Here is the input.
Amino acid sequence: MTDKSQGKQVAIEADRTFLVVVDDSEEMQVALHFASRRAMRTAGRVALLYVQQPAEFQHWMAVGDLMREEAREEAEGLMQKLSAEVKEWSGNYPVVHMREGDIGEELEKLLGEEESISVLVLAASTESAGPGPLISHLVGKGGARLRVPVTIVPGSLSDEEVIAIT
Here is the structure.
């Protein structure tokens, strides 16, 4: 490998951003910890994506707006908490993306817009019903449109196991 190509490799690694999709599952914490440790090891960054589902209660507009606002405030609190964890594990605060809509569609849009995202990190569900809806979507037809690799970590990993493999 020439010096020129080695310089390019270093630049690519320095720009590495690990995206974690935030939800309320226990396994999301495993993906977050894994991505944070990988970011720390590769001088990369972590990005968080939270997708709020549209309010289904549209009968009265004011009630729907209030529900949306309450959900947004809860999401912002969660993102602050998770950002502090990422800072502790990786040394840097994450880039935070908050959107409203269908999670699969918003994920695809974000990956199309943000060229700095280089790896999507997800944790498989620990439930026997399957790996989880987002992983199932990506393994199916949704994965064909992705431009980044997907790392799927077992959702049952302990903190010690994540540290050992990163």
Remarks:
- The mean pLDDT is 85.
- The domain at 16-165 is CATH 3.40.50.620 (Rossmann fold).
